[in-house]
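User: I'm curious whether this sequence folds into something compact or stays loose and floppy. Could you predict its structure so I can see for myself?
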Amino acid sequence: MTPTLDIQQPQPFDLVGSRILIAGNAVAFEGTLGISVSEGHDEYASFVTVGSLGLRQFQGAIDIPEDNAFQLNRLFVTLADNTGNENGPSVVIPVLFGPRILPGYGGWQPYTVAPGDTLTGIAQSQYGTDAFQPIFEANQHILSSPDVIFPGQVLRIPRDDL
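Assistant: Here's the prediction. I'll summarize afterward.
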């Protein structure tokens, strides 16, 4: 049986904070998974142990220091076989880094776009300012322009007060 990794958390383009929680299943795998987070330049790494040759659920976390050197809000979480098997399984998941999107990021809440809404109007109602950039950046996986939103879309509103 070929070793495989099935990652359940984070999902692609999840909005994550300074502690990134990781969960999934490892099949026909025994050893240690390396967890790394990078933007292509700087990298932070951690490890989670996975045992047994059958199906094994695992959980882990990696903490990104507050003084991190990340300049971009899109990061890559990589899980890889760290048991010396260079052909072992690995998975790369793109995520959005909340602390680079909104200072003091503490989580997000959903907002369903209503007819007549604009990102500026949503920002005014949520933040008391016209600064819509955090909302746009937190939803960059579904928005191609800050001027194009549709009724019924569910947007993530980054919060610093959760």
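Summary: The first strand starts at residue 4 and ends at 9. The chain is about 10% helix and 45% strand.
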